[in-house]
TrEMBL record:
<keyword id="KW-0812">Transmembrane</keyword>
<feature type="region of interest" description="Disordered">
    <location>
        <begin position="1"/>
        <end position="42"/>
    </location>
</feature>
<feature type="compositionally biased region" description="Polar residues">
    <location>
        <begin position="1"/>
        <end position="12"/>
    </location>
</feature>
<dbReference type="GO" id="GO:0005886">
    <property type="term" value="C:plasma membrane"/>
</dbReference>
<dbReference type="Pfam" id="PF02133">
    <property type="entry name" value="Transp_cyt_pur"/>
</dbReference>
<comment type="similarity">
    <text>Belongs to the purine-cytosine permease (2.A.39) family.</text>
</comment>
<feature type="transmembrane region" description="Helical">
    <location>
        <begin position="162"/>
        <end position="181"/>
    </location>
</feature>
<dbReference type="InterPro" id="IPR001248">
    <property type="entry name" value="Pur-cyt_permease"/>
</dbReference>
<protein>
    <recommendedName>
        <fullName>Nucleoside transporter</fullName>
    </recommendedName>
</protein>
<keyword id="KW-1133">Transmembrane helix</keyword>
<feature type="transmembrane region" description="Helical">
    <location>
        <begin position="83"/>
        <end position="102"/>
    </location>
</feature>
<feature type="transmembrane region" description="Helical">
    <location>
        <begin position="201"/>
        <end position="223"/>
    </location>
</feature>
<dbReference type="GO" id="GO:0000329">
    <property type="term" value="C:fungal-type vacuole membrane"/>
</dbReference>
<feature type="transmembrane region" description="Helical">
    <location>
        <begin position="465"/>
        <end position="488"/>
    </location>
</feature>
<feature type="transmembrane region" description="Helical">
    <location>
        <begin position="269"/>
        <end position="291"/>
    </location>
</feature>
<keyword id="KW-0813">Transport</keyword>
<dbReference type="GO" id="GO:0022857">
    <property type="term" value="F:transmembrane transporter activity"/>
</dbReference>
């Protein structure tokens, strides 16, 4: 194996210093405490024998140039030594590779199919919704270089030690859920291109799950290196899909429904597309913790934002276009009845054999979309507690892959329901959490900032009572104003025949209103 680190091509000086470990090694230790006066790396909850096995496993990872690091903070001397334009470009390419994927194409289909919106209405709601969500995700990404801690560990500075675990559980459900959706879409596409559809959807699910497990287990270096180039085949085949299918896009049929119902449907689809983007916020900083502290936050924010918007726009619009043609082209309707992935294959239909090849490329592009949540899930499991922290990230990655693979195999026939019920629901908690994070930063830490050395010390972190109460209040508002197939909130029901999904906005607002006074009282009474 070459001694050159993959990240050296991203502007990283890969020369090893005698007293400092490379990126793939465990961090050379600055003591970080577990809240009881002990070094968190000593494994206070593990027997010496089990601790020895864990250390041996991590040593094997390091010997094979894999990342053994979990949630430990990345110290300054362990980060990129050289920050170049390539390093900044990587931020743009990362998001393009992640998002220019079939799952976002199928998400765009929901506008015309589920909400009865025209091409124009669907396009405006999708792009503007993605823009709002991308602003949040891009801002959160800038905290990686500043702090050197993972996103969920950063959340402890607002939510506190114990309440933050609730957020971590929600984030794990979200990430594994998105991975489940990716696996199902991949399986649908590969099944559709197989002769007579003979290949089971289950085979495609297993293919993408195993591929993502391998790359995510290799860790940060291989993950970033893969995402740097993964966008190339995707941008080519998606452009081809536009070219061959655009003649069947229905650009003239208006949206259906009375004015109130139409307004509700527009808002609901806007919310789903917003949720697709905003749900990157709880893991965005994870991808940039190896960037040095001197990284320009403006450049990182801007490039992340552009990467997210470009990729979401391309994926959403082609999905909306394909779905708009269902009513006027029976072959599209027949394909969609077999699954959203089959409609993508049908869009390549005029190209015959080459179209099937392009469909396979689109399906395999979901690997790039599934790797980030798979990787971050391994880190986030460790945030759940001291015991979980001692389990190597690679093992948690393996457990996460097993969970979402089994769930995908079981739920592969209900992708549309999963999309409409799951995505918006997951967006609620992120919007609420972000409101609290934002106010903590600009109201209570505007002058004092953060002490990054106490990220793992419960006695120095906020107690989190104010954040927890605000989080619950935000959820109450979200539930009252949500609009899902299985439940429509009493306030949401007032808008149109099917309600309007306002959970994101009301949850954000309610949490934002109650958090400042509660936090002020918490600081006065508890001092932290």
């Amino acid at each position: 194996m070459s001694s050159e680190s993959p990240l050296s091509t991203l502007g990283v000086n890969s020369e090893k210093e005698p007293s400092k470990t490379p990126f793939t090694d465990r961090p050379s230790h600055t003591p970080e405490y577990d809240g009881e006066g002990r070094d968190a790396a000593d494994g206070p909850f593990l027997s010496p024998r089990i601790a020895a096995y864990v250390r041996r496993f991590e040593t094997q990872l390091i010997e094979y140039n894999l990342e053994a690091r979990g949630i430990e903070r990345v110290q300054q001397h362990e980060r990129m030594k050289k920050l170049t334009w390539v390093s900044y470009l990587q931020a743009f390419l990362l998001w393009v590779s992640i998002n220019l994927a079939a799952n976002n194409i199928t998400l765009g289909m929901l506008g015309p199919v589920v909400y009865g919106l025209s091409f124009l209405d669907s396009a405006l709601c999708a792009v503007l919704g993605a823009l709002v969500g991308a602003l949040v995700a891009s801002w959160m990404a800038t905290w990686g270089p500043v702090s050197g801690v993972r996103t969920m560990a950063f959340g402890r500075y607002t939510m506190g030690w114990w309440p933050s675990k609730i957020v971590v559980i929600l984030n794990l459900i979200q990430m594994l859920g998105y991975s489940l959706i990716d696996c199902v879409v991949c399986g649908q596409i590969l099944s559709a291109v197989s002769p007579n559809g003979d290949m089971s959807v289950a085979v495609g699910i297993v293919i993408i799950a195993v591929s993502c497990w391998v790359i995510a287990t290799f860790g940060y270096q291989v993950f970033h290196y893969y995402e740097r180039f993964a966008f190339l085949p995707q941008i080519i085949v998606v452009s081809i899909l536009y070219a061959v299918s655009s003649s069947k896009f229905d650009l003239s049929t208006p949206s259906s429904g009375d004015p109130r119902t139409l307004a509700g449907n527009r808002l609901s689809f806007f919310s789903i597309c917003l949720s697709a983007a905003i749900t990157y916020a709880p893991l965005a900083a994870d991808f940039f913790v190896y960037y040095p502290e001197r990284t320009s936050r403006v450049k990182l924010f801007s490039l992340s934002l552009v990467g997210l918007i470009v990729s979401f726009t391309m994926a959403f619009l082609v999905g909306i276009g394909l779905a708009s043609g269902i009513s006027s082209h029976p072959e599209y309707g027949a394909a969609y009845s077999r699954g959203a992935g089959a409609l993508i294959v049908e869009g390549f239909g005029p190209l015959h054999g080459f179209g099937k090849f392009c469909s396979v490329v689109v399906a395999l592009g979901l690997i790039a979309n599934t790797i980030p949540p798979t990787y971050s899930a391994g880190v986030d499991f460790q945030v759940l507690g001291r015991y979980a922290e001692k389990v190597p990230r690679a093992i948690w990655n393996t457990i996460g892959v097993i969970i979402y693979t089994v769930c995908a195999l079981v739920g592969r026939s209900n992708l549309s329901d999963i999309f409409t019920n799951f995505l918006a629901l997951m967006g609620y908690w992120v919007a609420i959490w972000f409101a609290i994070i934002l106010e903590e930063r600009f109201i209570f830490r505007f002058r004092t900032g953060y002490n990054w050395n106490v990220w793992n010390d419960p006695s120095k972190l906020p107690v989190g009572v104010a954040a927890f109460v605000a989080f619950v209040v935000g959820w109450v508002g979200a539930i009252l104003c949500m609009a899902q197939v299985w439940y429509i909130g009493p306030l949401s029901r007032l808008v149109g025949e099917y309600g309007a999904d306002m959970g994101n906005y009301v949850g954000f607002t309610w949490a934002g209103l109650v958090y400042p006074p509660l936090r002020y009282v918490e600081l006065r009474m508890l001092g932290r």
